[in-house]
Amino acid sequence: MTVKDAVYDVHHPIKVAAQQIHLSEAQCKQLAAVFSKYSVLFSSCIGCYTKRKFHIKLIPGTIPYHGKHLYHISQHDVPAYKKEMLHQESIGILEQVWETVWGLPSLVRPKKDGMI
Predict the structure, then answer these.
(1) Nearest-angstrom CA–CA distance, 28 and 19
(2) What global pTM score does this model have?
(3) What gap in Å lies between CA 65 and CA 62, rounded to an integer?
(4) Vertex 116, ends 68 and 53: CA angle to 5°?
């Protein structure tokens, strides 16, 4: 299977509710109301959790670990992965670090349909 590019489409909550053909018309309207209330979930934007800060406490004496090239990626799929990593960097999810004693390679896996 070839890895496909990620898709960041905006979905309209009312249209998504209307596509649920297994629901009655009344249920679709209720669902549309709930979806509209939480429309930010359909915006395709990835936000930041700002409610609290997290800290990682290390066991005293812990030795830094830096893994390299732990996951095999087909050369054919590298462009799709690279494009997704650059996208995530451009929107602030990832930050490229050149020198660090701690680090692991990123792992991106395609969904069943081949999309990242």
Answers:
(1) 9
(2) 0.54
(3) 9
(4) 70
Structure tokens at 95: 């930050």
Give pLDDT tens digits for 72-89. Answer: 777 888 888 888 888 888
Question: Which pair of tokens denotes residue 41?
Answer: 């979930």
Cβ pair 66, 28 in contact under 8 A? no
Assigned token pair, 32? 């549309």
Neighbours of 5 (CB within 10 A): 13
Residue 7's nearest CA partner among 113, 89, 105, 100 is 113
pLDDT band at 2 (very low <50, low <70, confident <90, very high): low
Secondary structure tally for the chain: helices H, strands E: 3, 0
